[in-house]
Amino acid sequence: MLSRNVSQGNAQVTILLAADHRHVLVQGETASIPIGTEHRQDNLHVGDLIRNSPRFRSGGRLSARKAERLSPLRRSFDKFTVFYRTGQPVSAATAGAGCCTPAQTFAGCGRLRSTPTRPGPTYDWLPVFTTGSLPILQLETPAATTATPLLNPRALPQAQTVGLYVHVPFCSHKCHYCDFYSITRQGVERMRRFVDRVLVEAQIWSDNPGPICQPRTIFFGGGTPTLLPADVMLRLIEGLRRRFDFSQLHEFTVEANPASVSLEYCQMLRSVGVNRISFGAQSFDPRELARLERHHHPDDVPRSIKMARQAGFDRINIDLIYAIPGQSLDSWASSLDRAIALGLRHYSCYGLTYEPNTPLAVKKRLGQIQAVPEELELSMLHLARRRLTEVGCPPYEISNYAAAGQHCQHNLVYWTGQNYIGLGPAAASHIQGYRFRNRPHLGEWEQAIDAGILPAGELEVLSPLRRAGELVMLQLRLTRGVEFADFAGRSGYDARQLYADQLDRLGRAGLLQIDESGFRLTEAGLNVADAIAAEFLTPQDR
Ligand code: SF4
């Protein structure tokens, strides 16, 4: 049953479904809702909406690209974002619990995507849901608006959050493989305004008696955090220190650009408590850097590391990418050797992924570049594991290598399912199974902050079983794998019982090594890690 309440005026409401938050895949019925009445429509399910949609029925006339996007919907009607398009200004939208059947409940909330006071069509959104039914929508006119945030920390479980992430969305140039949210060509004033608002966002969290932010780890990522001028970065760090309790902080990482960082900047970071720095090196072959559209020279990396050391950093990481188009095993070995010669104690090595809609993915689709063969990519992975282990930095996670005691504690917060808060556009937060991501758009994020609300763009409330499945998925990335006692403490389940079937099958296939303490990927399992991880998620969560 779909139910809509409108407190004043008429509202034309159209239901839109999207799988990726941008492209409307299915447009459902439009209804005019009279003033002060409640509109109900029985037995309206997402599946019905899709099946009844003219666009769905006209599948044969869709372009190949649209058909490609629709095809997953035909197979499964269980995961969408629902948009309500309204024909009048709307101040707020909320979704309450209650769907077609008592068994299908929905919990979540939504906010406007556009300026609340602007007249004309307005898109409201509701988070991804998986029940197959439409959530309740309540619309209010601007006169009925209250300043009450629809998602505020008070509505979230009271819990300690141990990780703090700040997404700085500025880059001097967009690399062609990158799908992180960032914008280019921004002036200092825009960056100052950004920092003002990050501090307001931090204040929203600290003013509320919901999750308690006492970070043990902080990570500034992006984007390129070191594009912030030194005085702006200082104000950001000092402002966060005034709003959150830093007494337990023991790891503070900032990502830095090897092309532009200076000794003075490194010294400033060190002086305000930053104790770990991470440089995006990616490759030591200038042709490979050019293919990725990276705008630094390989020699910038040792120069930056020298400055970081001079400034007092002893925890330094570099990111490397393998499986770059045209890269051979020899050229990857050469990049690894140059990296090892730097004598670091932490390295991150990522296989290149072709994220949808990045220039690199488009070039691949057009046949202008070719992905390296899968076997070669696996050889590169195993070469990195062998070479870095030989120099005392064995893998502790699929993509991360470190000497003893040098593991990135912030990433371990993610991989062990702990609580963290993200500030800035596109930053993700997780608190006890409540997971959401800030709006991945600087302007929309700013508007939400200026309205005094958390700029959440999606909220997922994970069931205990799904949390358990995701925990396995994350921990299988770790070399130590899933430890039964730790897993039981975090999830409340005995993994031996809950996953008896998977452990039996995957163990017998030689993909998992299982002993009395836990289970982990074997070398053979490493080659199909994603497929193994999916085995632990329920079908609707995959
Ligand atoms: S510098 Fe980093 S965040 Fe910015 S575009 Fe390149 S890869 Fe993406």
Task: Describe, in plain words, how this protein is organized in 3D.
With 542 residues, this protein is α/β, with parallel strands linked by helices. It folds into four domains: 2-146, no CATH class; 159-275 and 406-461, no CATH class; 282-314 and 316-353 and 365-402, Transcription Regulator spoIIAA (2-Layer Sandwich); 464-541, Arc Repressor Mutant, subunit A (Orthogonal Bundle), CATH 1.10.10.920. The chain contains 19 helices and 23 strands. A nine-stranded mixed beta sheet has the order 15-16-14-13-12-11-10-9-17, with helices on both faces. It has a four-stranded mixed beta sheet with strand order 4-1-8-6, with no helix packed on it. A four-stranded antiparallel beta sheet has the order 3-2-5-7. A hairpin with a 5-residue loop joins strand 2 and strand 3 (24-33). Helix 4 (188-207) runs parallel beside helix 5, helix 4 (188-207) packs across helix 13 and helix 9 (329-340) runs parallel beside helix 11 (374-390). The longest helix is centred in the middle third of the chain and has 20 residues, at 188-207. The protein starts with a strand and ends in an 8-residue tail after the last helix. Residues 1-9, 19-23, 34-43, 55-68, 70-79, 86-133 and 135-149 have low confidence and may be disordered. Bound molecules: iron/sulfur cluster. Iron/sulfur cluster (SF4) binds next to loops.
